[in-house]
Amino acid sequence: MRPHRAIAATVTAGLLWTVPACTGETHAPTMTRAQAKQQTADYAGQAIADLPQPVTTASGRENGTNCFKNDAPSEYDGRVVEVTEKRLSGIPADRQAEYVERLRARIESMGFHRDDSEALRTSIHFTNAANRFTGSIDGIGSTHGMLVIGFTSPCVWPDGTQPPH
């Protein structure tokens, strides 16, 4: 497996843990799918805005997925999550810690709090308690000069309200 594919597989697995069965009141209005997508894109743009150079940014995963019912995790409930992922390459190996620290500080400055302990050395996961968006930094410790950041929305109704039955 090529190095960037191995990182992509790790990142995809990391982002998938952010797609839970949807919790809370499933009938309540939400932001729309388009608003959720815009918010994930905005978070990604803000996170990488002031990174030191050199860094090359490329889009990674940009698609959402369906949410599942709480009591039937194999049944879709009609809501979706949106994902924006950015691959950051060209990071000098001796400066990776600096990039990770800048990303972490910036993500936390946007209202996110770290979800995990120091036990996960290859990724950091975040949650914004105010709006339930999640974020991640993956590829930490990689010698391939690449990190991947991602943001995922909470479950939302595609048009902001539950469709009539």
Helix/strand class: alpha+beta
Could you spell the SSE succession in H and E letters? HHEEEEHEEEE
Q: What is the C-alpha radius of gyration, as a whole number of Å?
A: 16 Å
**Major sheet summary line:** 6 strands, antiparallel
User: What is the rounded distance between the termini?
Assistant: 46 Å
Silhouette: elongated
Explain what you see.
With 165 residues, the protein is an alpha+beta fold. Helices cover 27% and strands 24% of the residues. It contains three helices and eight strands; from the N terminus they run ααββββαββββ. The strands form two sheets. The chain has a six-stranded antiparallel β-sheet with strand order 1-4-8-7-6-5, with helices on both faces. Strands 2-3 form a two-stranded antiparallel ribbon. β7 and β8 form a beta hairpin. α2 crosses α3. The protein is elongated and about 55 Å long. The relative contact order is 0.25. The N terminus is likely disordered.
Short description:
The chain is of the alpha+beta class. 27% of the residues lie in helices and 24% in strands. The model is unreliable at 1-21 (pLDDT under 50).
